[in-house]
Amino acid sequence: MNSSNDLKQEVTDKYSLRGRVFNRIREDILNGKYKDHEELREVAIGEELGVSRTPVREAFRQLELEGLIQIIPNKGAYVTGIKVKDIKDIYMIRSKLEGLCARWACEHITEEQLEEMEENIFLAEFHASKGHMEQIAELDNRFHNILYESCNSKMLEHLLKDYHQYVWRIRKQSLVTKRGNASNGEHRAIMEAIKEKNPDKAEQLANQHMINAYNNMLSNGFFDDYDDEHQDENQE
Questions:
Q1: In angstroms, rounded to a whole number, what is the distance separating the alpha carbons of residues 231 and 128?
Q2: pLDDT at position 172, please?
Q3: What pLDDT is recorded for position 227?
Q4: pLDDT attached to residue 27
């Protein structure tokens, strides 16, 4: 290398590339492109993404740490994905963490974040009245991201954004039911509690919001159709 700056740039590019490859493969697993037990082939994925096998192999190691794939020596990497039991666990964990997030948001949320949250809720109500389900799902996603960013804890924000992404596929299904309207009403109640600087109420409402979302999935039978290969997980 010609200089330390060149070396630093090379390292930055390497990690940026690895990050992009990792996020793309993880997204493809979570949105159902790769099915449970399907083998992930380094060469094929590398060719698809236009990269060498090295960043793909590095992404595989990180995905194994997250429990999304299993690497079997001398055989290959196989998708394990998100099971029905994982979804239940995620929602129970999220119920506690989102409550804590809403509590901290009462102290740290900015005026700009509150305004964006309120605009988000108005837009969701508008799109619900028009039956625009795709926009409702996107706005639901953004509401939670605003909430996470407003808690002033990068550790909690990171955890919640990851959990939120893990269940994106089934959340999107759930929001096309009447749950979309109910969910937005719950968002408004959480926002009002935060605006009132009432941490106990905000925490309780955010906690219950997650419980309601999970119960809606149960009552609408989403787990019955989620993935036939996951059903044995739901019998435990």
A1: 32
A2: 67
A3: 52
A4: 85
Domain identity same for 63 and 160: no
CATH code: domain of residue 154: 1.20.120.530
Instruction: Show which of 52, 79, 106 is a domain's final residue.
Output: 79
Domain that holds residue 204: 84-235
Rounded CA gap, 205 and 96, in Å?
11
Q: Where are the alpha helices (DSSP H) in the chain?
A: 4-30, 42-49, 53-65, 84-108, 111-130, 133-149, 154-166, 168-175, 179-195, 199-219, 222-226
CATH number, domain containing residue 52 = 1.10.10.10
Taking the C-alpha atoms of residue 109 and residue 147, their distance in angstroms, rounded to an integer, is 8
DSSP per-residue codes, 7-50: HHHHHHHHHHHHHHHHHHHHHHHHTTSSPTTPEEPHHHHHHHHT
Report yes or no: 191 and 117 within 8 Å, Cβ to Cβ.
yes
pLDDT for 13: 47
Cβ partners under 8 Å of residue 56, min gap 6: 21, 25, 42, 45, 46, 49
Q: Rounded distance, CA 102 to CA 205, Å?
A: 9
With H, G, I as helix, E, B as strand and everything else as coil, classify residue 198. Answer: coil
Domain stops at, among 79, 104, 125: 79
**How high is the pLDDT of residue 231?**
42
Residue recorded with tokens 């380094």: 42
For the record, the structure tokens of 225 come out as 């159709």
Give me the residues of the chain with pLDDT under 70, please. Answer: 1-15, 172-178, 222, 224-236
